Amino acid sequence: MTPLRLDAADIEAIENATLGAVVAEREETLLDDAGTAWRLPIDPGTVGRARSAVPLDHARAPHDADALIDAVERRYRTHGQPPRWRLAEVPALDGLRRALAARGYRAEQPTLTQVGRLADLRDAFRPPPGQAPVAVRIDTAPDAGWAQAFLGAGADAADAGHRLRVLGRSHGNRYASASLAGHTAAVGVIALAPRWAGLHGLRTEPAWRQRGLAGRLLHALAEAGLQAGLDRVFLQVEEDNASALSLYRRAGLRTAWRYRYWRGPD
C-alpha cells in the first residue's frame, strides 16, 4: 500500500467534501489577509463540523490573527451562534491558535483526518470465501431501518438526531445498511465529491458488534465509491477511538493531519 501524498488542492477538496456531506443550516465565507478562504458553517445542532469555521488552506498563515478572530466572531454572533473553529495542527496556524488561547478559547476533541485508497479499503475487507453473506444495501436516502440503527441504543438521541439532519441535507451522500436476520444492524455513509470519497456516520448497534459487520459495510462503501469513478477516500476519527483506528489501519489508511475544535467562553 503506497501512502498518498496530498497537495494543496487535495486539502481544499477534503475540507470542501467534509462540509458537502455534513450540511449546515446556513453558511458564510470570508477571505483572510493572507488570501486563504474560510468556510463558516452555521448550525444550532451538536455536529462540530457543521458549526465551526475552517480554512481551505493549511499552508498560509493569517498576517493579523486578531483581525481574523474578530471577523469570524462577528459573523457567528450575527446569527446568534457562539463562534467555533476547526483547526488543523499545522505550523501555519500556530499563531492563530495562540491568539485564540489568549482570548480564552480552549481546544477539545482531538480528531484525525485519515486518507487512503478505495481499492485497498475494499480488498482489506473482502469477505473470505465460504463465509455466509451479509446483505448490504446502498440507497440515495436513509430509510426507516437506517435511521433506527443510527439513532438506536448506545447513541445520544439528540446528537444522533442532529447528525441525521445534517447528513440528510446533502445530495451527494449514499447510505449503506448491513442487515442480519432482516434487521438493520450497521449503517454508514459515503459522500461522493470531486476528487475524494468521504466516509461518515459509521455505526453498528451494540448488540450486533463483534460480528464483522463494520468490515462488510466498509467493503460495500468502497465498492460504491469505486463504481462512482473515485479512487481515494478520507474519514475523520477521534484520536482515542482505538478500535476504529485498528480497523482503518488494516486498509492502509494513514493520518494526513490532526485537528481540534476551539471553543470560546460562551
Give me the CATH superfamily of the largest domain: Gcn5-related N-acetyltransferase (GNAT)
CATH C-level category of the largest domain: Alpha Beta
The CATH architecture category of the largest domain equals 3-Layer(aba) Sandwich
- State the major sheet: 8 strands, mixed
Number of helices, where a helix is a run of at least 4 consecutive DSSP H or I residues:
8
**Side-by-side strand order of the widest sheet:** 4-11-5-10-9-8-7-6
First and last CA, distance:
45 Å
Helix content: 25-40%
SS elements, strand count:
11
CATH topology of the largest domain: Aminopeptidase
Strand fraction: 25-35%
Unreliable spans are none
What is the global morphology?
globular
The chain-level mean pLDDT equals 93
Number of domain modules: 2
Category from helices, strands and their pairing: alpha+beta
Order of helix and strand elements from N to C terminus: HEEEHEHEHEHHEEEHEHE
Structural summary, described in words:
With 266 residues, the chain is α+β, with helices and mostly antiparallel strands. The protein has two domains: 8-112, no CATH class; 115-258, Gcn5-related N-acetyltransferase (GNAT) (Aminopeptidase, 3-Layer(aba) Sandwich), CATH 3.40.630. It is 33% helix and 30% strand. It has helices at 8-21, 65-78, 94-102, 118-124, 144-150, 157-168, 213-227, 242-250, and strands at 26-31, 37-42, 54-55, 84-88, 106-117, 135-139, 173-180, 183-192, 197-204, 232-238, 254-263. An eight-stranded mixed β-sheet has the order 4-11-5-10-9-8-7-6, sandwiched between helices. A hairpin with a 5-residue loop joins strand 1 (26-31) and strand 2. Helix 4 runs antiparallel to helix 7. The longest helix is centred in the last third of the chain and has 15 residues, at 213-227. It is globular. The mean pLDDT is 93.
